[in-house]
Automatic annotation (TrEMBL):
InterPro entries: Transposase_32. GO terms for molecular function: DNA binding; transposase activity. It comes from Photobacterium proteolyticum. Residues 4-147 form the Transposase IS801/IS1294 domain. This is Transposase IS801/IS1294 domain-containing protein. Transmembrane segments: none annotated. GO terms for biological process: DNA transposition. It holds the Pfam family Y2_Tnp.
Amino acid sequence: MKPKKDILFPAKVMMKLFRGKYLSVLRGLLVDGELSYPPELSKAQVASLLNQWGREDWVVHCTRQYSHGHGVAKYLARYIRGGAIKNTQLRHVSDTEVRYSYKSHQTQRTESMTMSHNDFMARIVSHVALPRKQQYHFVGLYHNRSRERLNKARLSLGQAEVGEVKAVSWREFMVAKGDAPCCEACGEQITILKRVKFIGGDVKFC
């Protein structure tokens, strides 16, 4: 039987296989007493948690492993900055269709796709974030409230602890990069004296 898509492994089958193999290794380590887990959890609670994970759908994405964090940051940056598609990817636009180029994760080559205007706009709009809705969620050890557990994991692997991240304003960032905003008349750095709001056409000082 010819598959519907030109793929090597069906995603659903691969997800179930990976989930089963991964949890099987964890259960084996738990039985042998070689699995490290939080001291406030009992062995029965960890086993129950593994069973719960076995009933959930996992998202499995096959790609070459990253040797360092730069590849992960570059991958996420495409979604955070620049939008879903760049102008340079648009190859042809006619009265009925749009053709654009993209890099295929399967072949690792630049390929092209042609679709109607409506389908193209629907694909673009699907990448637009909903107003006031968080786009990225940090879960597990990377959640904001799991800093202590993250540092424990890093110390067990011989890595340095993660410190508190200080919020940097846009002015501090520009100054650190040597590109501070300056006045066009005198050349000195622009300083905020007072903030103003326009309410009903009137200027109000904050």
